[in-house]
TrEMBL record:
HAMAP family: Malate_dehydrog_3 (MF_00487). The active site is at H175 (proton acceptor). It catalyses: (S)-malate + NAD(+) = oxaloacetate + NADH + H(+). The gene is mdh. It comes from Ulvibacter antarcticus. Keywords: NAD, Oxidoreductase, Tricarboxylic acid cycle. This is Malate dehydrogenase. Substrate binds at R82, R88, N120, R151. Residues 147-297 form the Lactate/malate dehydrogenase C-terminal domain. Its EC number is 1.1.1.37. The keyword ATP-binding does not apply.
Amino acid sequence: MKVTVVGAGAVGASCAEYIAIKNFASEVVLLDIKEGYAEGKAMDLMQTASLNGFDTRIVGSTNDYSKTAGSDICVITSGIPRKPGMTREELIGINAGIVKTVSSNLVKHSPKTIIIVVSNPMDTMTYLVHKTTDLPKSRIIGMGGALDSARFKYRLAEALEAPISDVDGMVIGGHSDTGMVPLTRLATRNSVPVTEFISQERLDQVMEDTKVGGATLTKLLGTSAWYAPGAAVSGLVQAIACDQKKIYPCSVLLEGEYGLNDLCIGVPVILGRNGIEKIVELDLNDAEKEHMNKSAEGVSKTNALLEL
Ligand SMILES: NC(=O)C1=CN([C@@H]2O[C@H](COP(=O)(O)OP(=O)(O)OC[C@H]3O[C@@H](n4cnc5c(N)ncnc54)[C@H](O)[C@@H]3O)[C@@H](O)[C@H]2O)C=CC1
Ligand SMILES: O=C([O-])CC(=O)C(=O)O
């Protein structure tokens, strides 16, 4: 199993580290445009191998895509992150050009690959990859919902004063400060609806804290987060590589599912060796449907800014 991660910055390196530590891939290629940067990160990470007990070979490359040839999975993290006070959507001007060039280079060297898009604004960048490559829709996956759901569970556990392992929940919709749809109605503590334990008011607070999860960290760090994003990507990569058939909310091209068309947005999917093996259609209530439709409107508005 060969995995390429483009962008050896904060998220790319974290992602490579988690993939290596989980020890399911034979090779991870880290590629960056900055001279020597990916080679340096790869060497530093390889020097953790004997300490952390993994056999994955991590290779660095300065923009040489021949090293990525034959990758089963390619992750795109290249591009700029936001600064405090910015939205993810403001990154489109610079990141669209980067994602377009990078995805084209990746597909040239690995025509059968599965691409996981991380660069922001992620739903729109995922749509861009659809529009500009020939890959089938099952092989283009945007990562956002897995991270947002992990943040939702963190906030739920905090509100419930419960261990995170006791809590389950999912966030669908767009990966933006206003577009996320945390499914509070379906969240559980060890199979019991969380509404049995906390008030609707507290749950509404959990929902709001979840939606601004990325912005909260960006304010604290001065740039956006990387540990949980890297871990979330590694979860998707592992589900595909190990054919786990796990359900994750991912940004995928919708063609009528959820009553939506011609956009990529977060919905639950089953991930296996073929990428997206099934889109799971949940029976949303009216409020959730309305929230999802508003979210889709926001994503489509950003998509309209793409020069296709
Ligand atoms: N979808 C999600 O849930 C998340 C998305 N992100 C996004 O991921 C992206 C990366 O964030 P960070 O790693 O924090 O940024 P960073 O600045 O630490 O790293 C980005 C790297 O991309 C490289 N790069 C730029 N243009 C390139 C090109 N054409 N080819 C190859 N490499 C290139 C840069 O040299 C840099 O090393 C941002 O757009 C950020 O908003 C971040 C966290 C979560
Ligand atoms: O907040 C950001 O800009 C980065 C990101 O997508 C996240 O951490 O959720």
